[in-house]
Amino acid sequence: MPAQTTDTPKFYQKRFMPMRHARLIPLLLALAVPANGLAETFERQLANGLRVIVKEDHRAPTAAHMVWYRAGSMDETNGSTGVAHVLEHMMFKGTPSAGPGEFNRRVAAAGGRDNAFTSRDYTAYFQQVPKQKLSEMMQLEADRMRHLTLDPREFAQEIKVVMEERRLRTDDQPQSLLFEQLTAVAFQTHPYRVPIIGWMNDLEHLAPADARRWYERWYAPNNAYVVVVGDLDHQVVFELAEEHYGPLEARPLPVRKPQDEPPQLGIRRLTVKAPADLPVVMMAYKAPVIRDVDQDVDPYALEMLAAVLAGHDAARFSRHLVRQQRLAVVASASYDSTARGPGIFYLHGSPSEGRTAAELEAGLRAEIADVQQHGVAADELARAKAQLIAGQIYKRDSIFAQAMEIGQLEAVGIPHALNRRMIDKLQEVTAEQIRVVAAKYFRDEQLTVAQLDPQPLPLASRPASPSTARH
Fold first, then answer.
1. Residue 346: beta bridge partners?
2. How many C-beta atoms surround the C-beta of residue 269 within 10 A?
3. Which residues are catalytic, by number?
4. Virtual CA dihedral for 231, 16, 73, 10, nearest 10 degrees?
5. Contact 412, 121 (CB under 8 A)
């Protein structure tokens, strides 16, 4: 089963994370629906500390079952980076009662699909199956939560798979390589500086004992929660969870110490040379994330600023930088207001032919300066809000997206029941609040700039000439 990492900002998610769309701009799907028309969510905590969250959705006879562990790459230590993701791979390699690959085969035989993904903040596993197969899925997940087999031969094979994944998704992808280097410079002490997939040198030296220590440290019912969305009665789900997960014993968990990033004292710049067609500019500004859903203001205003700049085809970057000035072939903004660690607001683009990376950086800065000086118009803000809403409403048609929404909120310490309040806070954002956050956070002392300096592509990567191309 190919596992996935969520190591990329929003402007790469379509390529790397086809499922992560549920997190792009949090929790707006209910805006167009009366509160009493929303499906109700139910919750119970088992004696061993495992929380079970159920959302009933009776429109189709299916269920999404997800297990979330509160451990991601930010919990790793130097020398063992990538171990969270490697362990995720190994979770499909069997237990004493279900051999290697048996998990995937049984999900497929049940008529379902399954996968897993690792992020900085969490690791999650899911199955989407006909509702009558939920009990079997719980039995399989509970089995590998406690009885995972970590065979050295399987580990030796899987570590090669992860290293090849790193080569294909990062080392051979210039923009991904640039983003990785940007992150490593923007964060100097916080573990967000390390790529989720790990540094290659660490992967080369990981051993089965490293994965075993990670598994024993974090994979316990009192460090996990289960999310189920689908055509099921919540009481039935609670009974199944008690049957399958209830017998697992809680274990002492490590104490997490604060790992705050110290204040940045000036602009940071870096250049990455890699084979590519076009230059790329990435700008990363330190920004806050939501810590108090009700009291915070700035994260919601930053979400709206990202939408104003690049949230739709008529947004400022597309209108000004791409179409009017022809300064960029692409320009985007990305910000996620939810995270366990510190936040970053990204600006990103590639200059048009004949234009330079320096010109594009100046153009991106000019758009921010315009917001700082003149703010945004009322109709512009209304359009951005409408686009945010439109981009999320269709999630109501996806059982999986609903489960993702609940799980990702809980992973960063935000109770899922507060999603409605977050929606209200986004609705309350004013043009003045957007102008204030643009002035407050978009300063050089909080900025890291990365530039991709394109090098000649290898001959094998160049398209065939017309005389030799096949059609």
1. 284, 334
2. 10
3. 88
4. -90
5. yes
CA distance 65 to 113: 11
Structure tokens at 151: 């065979």
Q: In this structure, are residues 58 and 208 in contact, taking their beta carbons and an 8 Å threshold?
A: no
Where does residue 294 rank: exposed (0-12), middle (13-18), buried (19+ CB within 10 A)?
A: exposed
Nearest alpha carbon to residue 25 among 293, 422, 315, 439: 422
Distance of alpha carbon 127 from alpha carbon 226, whole angstroms: 12
Amino acid at 109: A
For residue range 186-227, list pLDDT tens digits in order.
999 999 999 999 999 999 999 999 999 999 999 999 999 999
State the pairing for strand pair 62-69/4-5. Answer: unpaired
| Cβ-based neighbours of 271, under 8 Å, separated by 6 or more | 450, 451, 452, 453
* Backbone region of residue 306 per phi and psi (left: phi > 0; alpha: psi in -120 to 50; beta: other values): alpha
Integer-rounded Cα Rg, in Å, for the chain is 23
Name the one residue in this structure whose structure tokens are 């992560």.
Answer: 20
DSSP bridge partners of 128: 64, 113
Instruction: Summarize pLDDT for 287-312 with one digit per residue, the tens.
Output: 999 999 999 999 999 999 999 999 98
Which 3 state secondary structure label does DSSP give 403?
helix
pTM for the structure as a whole: 0.90
Would you say the C-alpha torsion 183, 189, 190, 194 has a positive or negative sign? positive
CB-CB contact of 7 with 197 (8 Å): yes
User: Amino acid identity of 249?
Assistant: E
Whole-angstrom distance, CA of residue 315 vs CA of residue 332: 10
